[in-house]
Amino acid sequence: MAQSDFLHPTLMLRDYDDRYQNEDERNIHVWASARSLVLRLRVIAGCYQHGDLTYDTFFMWLAVIVERGPKELALVHWGDPRIRDLPQDEDALSTWLQQQRAPVIRQGTTRSSNVIPGHYILLDWDPLANTFYLRCRTPLLPEISSRCLSGNGSGGTGASVNRRGRKLVRKRDMACRITQEPATLRPRGANFTALEVAHIYPLAALDQANRLVSASVFPWLSSRDAADMPYNAILLRSDIHNLFDDYQFSVWKYGRENRDNYIYRFEKGGAPGMQNYKQIFPPRPATEANLTAGHASVTSTDDVSWDFFNVHFRTALLWHVSGQGRSPSTNAVLTAEINRPDQHLAHYRLQPAYSLHIT
């Protein structure tokens, strides 16, 4: 399909060789303005609504993805900017917005309402001026740009070499922390076939740890042996381990109400087979059978540090939600551009006289 077939004549694509390449994997698309001599709207975030993503959670994700601005953000539920007949200059666009009276969803006012699929424009709310601004927003790039699959701890590229750490994780968890499928107990010891030790913070990125984790847990990542311990690993079924290492899903500490440690999938076809798993479980409690078999000697107090899960989740957002959801080396920017060559537009301001409808 040619660009002219799906773009309004006043809109153009720049620095992009084809259509929005991750569009089929998303039903939520967030657009914002860019620093330019013309008014440009570009995709800065997007994901697939699997029925479990609330506006409050999505606003927290956006605060991670875009460069820092005011504390309160807002979203306008909009039509697709590539095909919608938008005005070509600032004044005309302001008048058009007032006429449309598009509903604005403010951060902190939506509670647990699910995000409605569609296209959104990201705004900033200025409480002093009592108005909204269409700001320049720059999506951040992932700090961890690649990852070797960590394997089951028995060797290979990126794999664990610390047999003691692997044994302690097995003793503590005794089952996949997501599916709860247990290791099979045998007189000669548990059978962990198809259950693997998954590192949360990747061992291959230890040289970046001082920038990505808090000072309190950085010593735990100061060396490969230090990082290859239970506080940085969980037991996962092998297929889920691969999805976890590829950041196709992650665990968000602040999930839906009364459901912390919630699992989120970010794309329509991402993390296949994960739809029935909603949260990560704590280590299995010690049972008489486990103790008799010589396992479950590690207590829940030796569980994972959430600092590492936070880094994993941030990386997943920047890989799969930020921009087009592609790796930074190929992440071209899709831009819907409104011609305005005569003026540098640092930001676009909605007219204060226009009272936007708050939902």
From TrEMBL:
Residues 176-251 form the HNH nuclease domain. This is HNH nuclease domain-containing protein. It holds the Pfam family HNH_2. It comes from the Eukaryota. InterPro entries: HNH_nuc.
